[in-house]
Amino acid sequence: MMIARKGRCLLAAAAGTLLAGAALAQQGQPPPLPIEPTGVIQTLPATYPPSWFLVHDASFFHMSDGKVYVIDTAAATLAAQVKGTFNVSLIGNIAQAPGRGEIYATQTFHSRGSLGDRLDVLTIFDMQTLAPKGEVILPTGKRFMGMPQHYALLPMNDDRWLGVANFSPATSVTLVDLDSRKIIGEIPTPGCVLAYPTGKRGFSSLCADGRFLSTELAANGSIVKQVRTDVFFNSDTSPIFERPAVIDGTAYFPSFAGLVYPVDMSGSVAKVGEPWNLVPEAERAKNWAPAGLGLVDKDDQGRLYVIMHPDAADGTHQRGGPEVWVYDPVTKQRVQRIVLKSWGLSLALSRGKDPVLMVVNPNDMSLEMYNTGNGEFIRTITDFGQATPLLVHGSN
Question: pLDDT category, 104, cuts 50, 70, 90?
């Protein structure tokens, strides 16, 4: 009897709670939210607008979490500026092929997080959804792993192939057929790294002994010939940056000492021209010199942009600088100085007749935007989740 009486009391209490809840609902409580649809995918335009950039955050202090952010620099609010993101794990590199609607990224994974079996892949992302649409398994332990580079990946042969630079420390280039998504060969480049565009179907690599190695390929991806240029710099006494800007088939390689070497890449063999000085004679006493990671780029008008710093000394070449100097490479003259708000580590230019300059500020890892017409600061883009955006790319 006691048990039955307790059960009736519990039922009465539960009924009272339900009635109280119903009463509250009648006293102005909001109605239940509608069920949201799932599986909805927003898409980006097939051709990115000129104001869009790809910001490569290598996530230096937790490298397995690297990302690329697609940023619209023309938008006024952060919500409108961030168009999307995709992962690039373990200091990979990216390349764009807008004609194919694809972005390529090298990545590395381990079966147990930071331990276990290693897997190196080339991931193919759809430019409109930023979702992976395919992958190619790369040879294990070979791909270039270092600070992000513009020329660690190279679309070639009218975007039918992709060259993937290797450094293990043996150097080579893995050749991927993008139509079949299969590896069609590995090209040895002994003593020479990265892949710069050379001719219609080939590439050149920069060698530690101060030369270029130019590789011409046949239609099936085999080697037609490899040619080494004469020595044009000394790695110990007059080093150059491996990071050029390519304008109308000529790659411009800055040196640590403030020279720039024009290299004609339009033919099947790289042809090194005479260097010229980036620093006007009147300013050389202040030891101005190039510095930074992504320290050089170009615009659609054929102008060359370089991050510069004064008081250059041994070891300052990675620091970046307080100014961006702009050159006409035809006349070999500086045509503009852009004084930065703070400091610049890497830069990139937007497309079009009125290009905008993006500069990475290494002090707070924000992105600073400048008008290239008058050099004036436009805005800062920050707080979008970035950690160490070491390299930036204008959308192609």
Answer: very high
Helix, strand and coil content of the chain, in percent to the nearest 5, comes to: 10, 45, 45
Q: What is the pTM of this model?
A: 0.90
- For 196-224, write each residue's pLDDT tens digit: 999 989 999 999 999 999 999 999 999 99
Average pLDDT for residues 10-22, to the nearest whole number?
45
Q: Give the pLDDT band (50/70/90) at residue 26.
A: low
What does the H/E/C string look like for 302-366?
CCEEEEEECCCCCCHHHCCEEEEEEEECCCCEEEEEEEEEEEECEEEECCCCCCEEEEEECCCCE
Quick one: which H or E segment has residue 84? strand 82-87
Please state, in angstroms and rounded to a whole number, the distance separating the CA atoms of residues 269 and 163: 17
What gap in Å lies between CA 163 and CA 307, rounded to an integer? 28
Q: How far apart are CA 372 and CA 293, in angstroms?
A: 20
As a whole number of angstroms, the distance between CA 255 and CA 297 comes to: 15
d(CA 155, CA 196): 10
Asked if pLDDT for residue 21 goes beyond 80, the answer is no
What is the strand order of the sheet 153-156 is part of? 153-156, 161-167, 171-177, 182-188
290, 278 in Cβ contact below 8 A?
yes
Question: Which amino acid, one-letter code, is at 180?
Answer: S
